[in-house]
Amino acid sequence: MRKTLVSSFIALAFSALTASAAPPPAYFVDEAKLPFAALANLPTDRAWGVHNGAGYRIEVPQNWNGTLVLWAHGYRGTGLELTVDNHPLRAFLIANGYAWAASSYSRNAYDPSQGAKDTHALTKFFNGRFGKPVRTYITGASMGGHITAVVAEQWPQSYDGAMPICGVLGDYELFDYFLDFNLAAQTLSAQGALYPFGADYMTAVVPATKAALGPAFPFALNAAGLNFKALVQLRSGGVRPLFDQGWLYWNGLVPGDFLFGLGVGDGTLPRQPGVAVQNTDVTYQFDSLPALTPAEDAFNIAVQRVRADPQGRRNNGLANVTPTPGDLRIPMLTLHTLGDLFVPFHMEQEYARRVAAKGYAQNLVLRATRDIGHCSFTPNELVQTFTDLVKWVEQGSKPAGDNVLDPAAVAHPNFGCTFTDKTAPRIWDQPGLAFLKPAACPAP
């Protein structure tokens, strides 16, 4: 398994929803780590340093085509050191004449507001040092996908296109999903632990909860466990391919009872006082039929309800967990894996509904890929997504996408096949994980 990816997630599990009343931390950039060398046979002008408290890297090819591509990195944990990613498409971008720039942001924790402001500040810094680009794109992954959507909505006059991948496009809805998972488990297992959970939640309550949901959770489930699995499926994006594999991977193979750990905390977020999560507006179901069954009725009566504080859940402006209301005035092409249960597929659906409600559906194209990891995209998938976005912006050729709001389309066994790189190895190709392999996509 991808241990470095998983270990970074574990840090989030125990810190994302934990309040901090301490003074602001003393974040720092180790400037000795900022320099980076050119790629072989690809001469470039490179710059690095600290701007407004954030580290940055910039690279401009000698045959620059006039286009700048910003990169917004994902969650970095709560450590004090601020670090910079190279753009994951760096080799492709430089070889094809694109400049790129990336910021560390001036603080860590889950703070897309600061990430958006620092990334936009880097755009303006680039304009002053290298000249205003002919075109500018914003790209980012996970929390960086959230930042990408914020930047696109807040400063549409400064960017020509946006590419969030595996993004938290539903802002607070992600944290509500973490709450849903844990409260549903408590209700269906009859353990009844109340949120916010006590200090023994992970060590005592969660083991008892899992045992009450099946003889070998998540692989063998009883009736209550099957209802729990069905509820998580519907709350994470609906009936779809790769959910079963994602269920086993995220609940059985990622260490540390990961999804349960995402419920640890008191519901507050850094720099934003008050409880930020809620489920008072949720009607839970175990199937896709509109009418509630007696079992669903009983569950909705029994499950603990949590209401967010007004000051903990802001609906506009550059709040900490900055809202993405759907004011999308530039082209955006997204990418998301179907089996991701950490930042699940319903993030795409939530954002699609918001954009449509604002009247900007023509500016959004969404794509699904068949994988179970978080941000588990192949180089080919990323290059294809970016080049299709560029063709849309520069040639007016709107790319194809997936209908993420049609439950029948999403539930089709071949959903996600169109934009999946079928030649690259996946998680299930590793030794001992063949049982996670989904049915093959049909031949083109």
What are the salient characteristics of this protein?
single chain, 444 residues, alpha/beta, 2 domains, globular, disordered N terminus, signal, Phthalyl amidase, AB_hydrolase_fold
Explain the overall architecture:
The chain starts with a helix and ends in a 33-residue tail after the last helix. The chain folds into 2 domains: 3-170 and 315-436, Alpha/Beta hydrolase fold, catalytic domain (Rossmann fold), CATH 3.40.50.1820; 172-312, no CATH class. Strand 5 (135-141), helix 4 (143-154) and strand 6 form a beta-alpha-beta unit. The chain has an 8-stranded mixed beta sheet, sandwiched between helices. Helix 5 (172-188) packs antiparallel against helix 7 (223-235). The chain is α/β, with parallel strands linked by helices and 444 residues long. The protein contains 13 helices and 8 strands. This is Phthalyl amidase. Residues 1-21 form the signal peptide. It comes from Pseudaquabacterium terrae. Keywords: Signal.
